[in-house]
């Protein structure tokens, strides 16, 4: 069943007392050089979103701690984490920022920029377990119904639900990535990893109908009303609109969870679901294991 969440909710962003500096860090040209070399050496490994996230976090840290790479101490990192906590950053965000700093200092030690890693003694902040929130069949049908008559929106919703892809992955799907006879799509996921996802016959019909209405020559599966590749932010706004109309929260990630939960209800093995989702880290494994168990129990409860 759908976890009960109040329909009226507001997301607020904490105010930042500093911003990333892209041209230099408090006059420390060597730190800037090392940072840019780090990003250059990881250009193939990092996705565009990972690159932006890591760059913002590292420049943010060195703006807060105006020291050379070799002079940074564990206490400097603890003070930075404390300041981020005061500003309202969540434990999950703090985890991501510390993981970024750890990656950078492992690189610095390997490349000989410093002999010590000040992040080693800093534990990751503890996070509360995420709720396993997904749509039941009735809520999913309501979302489908409310988007009827808007062909592109309807196709986007069905593609999210039947493939389980991430928001940024869907925004970058190109038409040549789709194999309609086999009903599969080649996806380039996090870390530029390639995987194959599948879609249903109804989804295939929606996609073909939508593409038949297009008059542009753009290579992307979904385009904006302005005739360019649809942006992730625009898709996010689209789902916010439908959430307001429906009276319950729904997002692209909600449909990703729904895809996984409904497969679990049908008895699909967890390992297969994780493969389709493109997951390989332990934290996501634990989350989807709980989601898998919850979905199977709710299926069982229907017959008890």
From TrEMBL:
Site-specific tyrosine recombinase, which acts by catalyzing the cutting and rejoining of the recombining DNA molecules. It comes from Heliobacterium mobile. Its main location: cytoplasm. PANTHER family: PHAGE INTEGRASE-RELATED, TYROSINE RECOMBINASE XERC. One of its GO terms (molecular function) is DNA binding. GO terms for biological process: cell division; chromosome segregation; DNA integration; DNA recombination. Keywords: Cell cycle, Cell division, Chromosome partition, Cytoplasm, DNA integration, DNA recombination, DNA-binding. Belongs to the 'phage' integrase family. This is Tyrosine-type recombinase/integrase. The keyword Metal-binding does not apply. It is found in: Cytoplasm. The keyword Cell division applies. Residues 130-301 form the Tyr recombinase domain. Pfam families: Phage_int_SAM_1, Phage_integrase. It comes from the Bacteria. Signal peptide: none annotated. The lineage of its organism: Bacteria, Bacillati, Bacillota, Clostridia, Eubacteriales. InterPro entries: CB, DNA_brk_join_enz, Integrase-like_cat_sf, Integrase_catalytic, Integrase_recombinase_N, Integrase_SAM-like_N, Tyrosine_recombinase_XerCD. Residues 29-109 form the Core-binding (CB) domain. GO terms for cellular component: cytoplasm.
